[in-house]
Structures are given as C-alpha cells and as structure tokens.
Design goal:
The protein is built from nine helices and two strands, in the order H-H-H-E-H-H-H-H-E-H-H. The chain is an all-alpha fold. It has one domain. A two-stranded antiparallel sheet has the order 1-2. Helix 4 packs across helix 7 and helix 7 runs antiparallel to helix 9. The longest helix has 15 residues. The protein is globular, with a radius of gyration of 14 Å. It binds calcium ion (3 copies).
C-alpha cells in the first residue's frame, strides 16, 4: 500500500499534475473501479455512506504517524492550503476525522451534478469528481 502511494506521488511529480488534481486511480484510468471497490450496496453507484467509509479508510492510510489528525504535510498533495484551513476548524494540529468527513461530504455534494443520492462513474470524471477522489482514494 505504501509503495503504491509512493508510486502515485512519483507519477504526479513526473507528469506535473497540479497538487489538487492528484488522483492515483484517475491517472490509471480506473475511476469506475473506485466505485466498484467501495460499492457495499452493489448498485454500481457510490452513495454518501460508501463515500464516507472510503474517506475514513483514506484518512487512515494517509496518517502513518497514527495520531488523531491529518497534518498538512500528510495531505498537501491532495488538497490546497485554503481548503485545509477552511476545514481545519479546531486548529490544534491538522484535520481530525470529523473535519475530514465534512470535507468528503462537501466534495460528494459538489461532484453529484445530477443531484440524485449517488455518484455515478461519469461524475467522477469531472473536475469536482477528481476533487472527491482525492479524499476517498489512496
Ligand atoms: Ca452503492
Ligand atoms: Ca497525522
Ligand atoms: Ca449523481
């Protein structure tokens, strides 16, 4: 898992992709697999609960020091400083799980262009979709 993440980082640097657009799954062209991987209800779509669970797994994966927060250094290749600051309500250290989940929810909503209850594969291919992927994949 760790080596995969490192590879993703190297790829992002090599291709010069902007920090906020760093999405390993999307780069690999497997955006729809992100849904399949997290699709607990098996309807081929990602609902908010599934996204939150994926977000929590991502939180854990991005937090190798195993403390209670994602410090900026741990997520700087995924979210911009302004976003980090806006969601970092409790300023002690970084984003805690509650703050991180708020960000996942906001990005889920932004990516859900048709306004239904789920994220479909095509919605992950948009810019907002990539922003969601950045907080629910690792
Ligand atoms: Ca589903
Ligand atoms: Ca941490
Ligand atoms: Ca949708």
């Amino acid at each position: 898992m760790k080596s995969k993440f490192t590879l993703g980082l190297a790829a992002a640097v090599a291709t010069g992709i902007a920090a906020t657009a760093f999405v390993p799954a999307a780069q690999a062209g497997h955006v729809c697999e992100v849904i399949a991987k997290n699709d607990r209800i098996r309807d081929g779509k990602l609902d908010i609960i599934e996204a939150i669970v994926a977000g929590k797994k991502t939180f854990k994966a991005l937090n190798p020091d195993n403390d209670f927060t994602l410090e900026y250094a741990e997520v700087s290749n995924r979210i911009g400083p302004k976003t980090f600051d806006r969601y970092n309500k409790i300023k002690r250290k970084g984003l805690d799980r509650v703050e991180w989940t708020r960000l996942v929810k906001a990005r889920f909503k932004a990516a859900n262009r048709d306004g239904d209850r789920t994220i479909e594969c095509d919605e992950l291919m948009t810019r907002a979709g990539h922003r969601l992927l950045a907080v629910i994949t690792y």
